[in-house]
Structure formats: structure tokens, C-alpha cells
Amino acid sequence: MLSPLDEYPIHQTPLSMAAVATSDRNFYDRCYFNGHDRTGDVFLITGMGIYPNVGVVDGYLAVKQGERVSTLRFSDALGDERLRVGPYRIEVIEPLQKVRVICEPNEHGIAADITWDGSFPALEEQPHVIRKGPKVILQSTRFAQVGTWTGTLSIDGVERTLTPDTWLGSRDRSWGIRPLAPSDPANRFDEGAEPSFWWLYVPLRFDDFSIIVIMQEGPDGYRTLNDATRVWPDGRIEQLGWPRVDFRYRSGTRIPLGCTMHCTTQTGDALDVEVESLGYVPLHLGPGYGDADWSHGDWRGHNWSQRFEVDLTDPAVAPRIPFGNIDHVARATCRGPKGEAEGFGLFEHATVGRHDPTGFADVMAVAP
Questions:
Q1: Distance between CA atoms of residues 153 and 37, nearest Å
Q2: Residues of the chain above pLDDT 90, percent
Q3: What pLDDT is attached to residue 136?
Q4: Most buried of 283, 289, 299, 351 (most Cβ within 10 A)?
Q5: pLDDT of 366 higher than 50
Q6: Does any domain span residue 365?
Q7: Tell me: the pLDDT tens digits for 313-365?
Q8: Has residue 364 been placed in a domain?
Q9: In terms of pLDDT, which residue wins out, 307 or 131?
Q10: What is the Cα–Cα distance from 196 to 217, expressed in whole angstroms?
Q11: 3-class SS of residue 76
Q12: What is the pLDDT of residues 182-203, one digit of tens each?
């Protein structure tokens, strides 16, 4: 049963009364949203998280315009107010359906007042577990959902109106244990460990259904997480089997141009989902997902904020892009026994180090 902390009273209890399931310093509770106008020219990624065992709350709001990504980053001491950090806050209007994200006008020049509305029921995904030797370093529960946006987004005095007939997006919320900044010290299990991370997360919104695929594999292609589903408006969940995925990468890089996910319906029919990237934001270059200069849970003092700029065409930036998770605006075509459907959503992919199925032999290998 879904129990997202941001949508039930437990999340609003005072810090001294908060229920934390573990004393692990890396316990977290975090939400993520994205939004776009189906072109890829503008891409909004935002979210916030609480880290009770290190006493930190943080948030970010990143906006891609053309090839430039502007990110506002906030961090503060975790107190009684759980859904606010600095000028940034989240309001749950209707649990699992309608959420308002607000970034009040500030000295950094980016502000927003936008409301997300779910198009289909939320999906609780399979538990996600990663180990290093005997130690669990990531163990999370997560739900995902696709929807539409309404509101206004202002960047350096230029205001943009978001309307649900054009602006789509997805959200997810996860809680559990995951690595926080600063990283845990190296130990024996790091010796000889092969640097690798392969990940695929694709929530897509079609007119009549949503498709959500989440996969993780080891260097040899051994799949440790496989969750492929179609969600119908009445809440029915259809499993889509064990997808085979064909990737298309930009030559000389690991930046994907798209992929085709070969799924199978519960009746055994082929269901192919072709995904095309319309533009991307590297989550590790601004939004805090493994950034070298700021990552989630990193204590920077009281009421800390910063605007961070990245030019994706900068020769100094380009070599860093493949070494992390990359979020793409996705246009998708679903082909099955009942015809074709066009949809849009998120295409999130990371491929770092060796991955035999896609032909990457080591950490420096790139597409031909």
C-alpha cells in the first residue's frame, strides 16, 4: 500500500516526534518532479528531500533553456517545517493527485508557482536494493506517476505560462536508504571493485494509459531490477514482461539519442515502445544527484542557496556529461496489437563503466 510521507500527517510532525525507520545516517525521504512542453526546448526538473539522521533539508529547481541549464539549490537545517527550504516549498492539495510547487521570488532570478495534476493512478514500484559486499547501501520504496502542469515559471524576469494541454511531466517519491554527501569512507569491499552503473527509468504518458519501465543491470547484463508496467485509468496494472532494449547512442559518446523497449503484454503480444530524446539535463551537473560540488544531504550551513549555471556545449563540460544519470524529454511511439499511440515523458538513462550488452568494454568506451 502506498504511504508517501509527503502526503500523510507523519511528514508534518515536529522533528522531535518524527518517525525514522532506521538510525542509518543515509536515511532519506525525497520527491522529484519534471515538466516540459513536448518540444525539449524547455525542461524543468525540481524536487526536495529530508535527511533526518543528518539534520538536513534541501531542494533544487533546474530549468533547461536551449543548451543552458540554470539550477537553484537550497539547503538548511531540518526543523518542524518539512515541506519548505528557503523560498522553496511544496503543498499537497490532494494526496496522490494534485501537488503545488512554489519557489518564491528571490535574489537568484528564478521563481515558480506550478501545480501538478495526476493523469493516471500512482504506481508503487518494486523495491530497489543495492549492496556493497554485505552492506545494503541503497534500499528504497518508490511510487511514480505521470500528469500535467498548470502555473507560471519566471526566469530572469521572463514569465512563462504552463497549461495542461501542452505541459506534461512525471513525478516520483522514494524513501529509505541511499548514499548521501559526504560519501562513506572507502573500505575493503571497494578494493578491486569495477566502476559501473547501468540504469533505465522511463515513465511515459499516453492519452489512454501510462507506461513505466525501470531497470538496472550489472556489467555483464545481469538484471537486478525489472519492473515494466502499463497503468490504465481505472487503476488496473498490466505487467509488460522482461523488456529487451535496443539503445541508439550519439557516435563517439555515451549520450543516448533514444531506445526501443521490446515489451510483452499479459496476453503474450509484442508491445514495442520507441523512445526519442528531445533534449536532456545531466542530473549530476547542478541538480545534486552525485554532483562534485554539491549533492543531496550535504550540510552547507543555515539558509544556504546558490544559482548554478551549466552550458552543455562548453568543451569543459561535455566530457563530464556521460558520467552520471541523464534525464531526457522523451517522445514515444507505442506499437501493439491494437495499433499505435503517441506519448511523451521522461527517458532517464545512465551507463557508466563496462556494460557487455551494449558493447561498452570499460569506463572509457564510447559508441562507434
A1: 12
A2: 81
A3: 85
A4: 351
A5: yes
A6: no
A7: 999 999 999 999 999 999 999 999 989 999 999 999 999 999 999 999 999 99
A8: no
A9: 307
A10: 10
A11: strand
A12: 888 888 877 777 788 999 999 9
337 within some domain: yes
Specify the pTM: 0.94
Using CA atoms, how far apart are residues 82 and 49, in angstroms rounded to an integer? 9
Distance set, CA 113 to CA 1, 48, 55, 150 (Å): 30, 15, 27, 9
The position carrying cell 562507434 is: 368
Which 3 state secondary structure label does DSSP give 6?
helix
Residue 336's closest CA among 257, 238, 253, 246?
238
The backbone torsions φ and ψ at residue 11, rounded to the nearest 5 degrees and listed phi first, read -70, -15
Query: Tens of pLDDT along 209-254?
Result: 999 999 999 999 999 999 999 999 999 999 999 999 999 999 999 9
The answer to whether residues 101 and 33 touch, using CB atoms and an 8 Å cutoff, is yes
Q: How many domains is the chain built from? A: 1
**Cell numbers that stand for 65 in this block:** 533553456
C-alpha cell at 79: 526543523
Q: How far apart are CA 144 and CA 33, in angstroms?
A: 10
Compute the distance between CA of residue 234 and CA of residue 282 in angstroms, rounded to an integer.
35
Per the DSSP assignment, residues forming a β-bridge with 135 are 132
Cell triple for residue 60?
A: 533544487
Boundaries of domain holding 39 = 5-16+23-178+195-358
For residue 183, the model assigns a pLDDT of 82
Greater pLDDT, 188 or 6: 188
Amino acid making up residue 113: D
Residue 187 inside a domain? The answer is no
Q: Which cell numbers in the block locate residue 107?
A: 535574489
pLDDT for res 255: 96
Cell for 241? 514482461
Q: What is the CATH number of the domain that holds 307?
A: 2.40.370.10
The grid coordinates listed for 137 are 547501501
What is the Cβ-side half-sphere exposure of residue 239, based on CA atoms within 13 angstroms?
Answer: 8
Angle at 293 between CA 111 and CA 362, to 5 degrees: 120
Phi, psi of 206 (to 5 degrees): -110, 170
Residue 316 exposure: Cα atoms within 13 Å on the Cβ side: 2
The three three-digit cell numbers of residue 76, written as one number: 538548511
Distances (CA, A) of 125 to 29, 51, 176, 319, 325: 16, 22, 14, 33, 19
Neighbours of 94 (CB within 10 A): 10
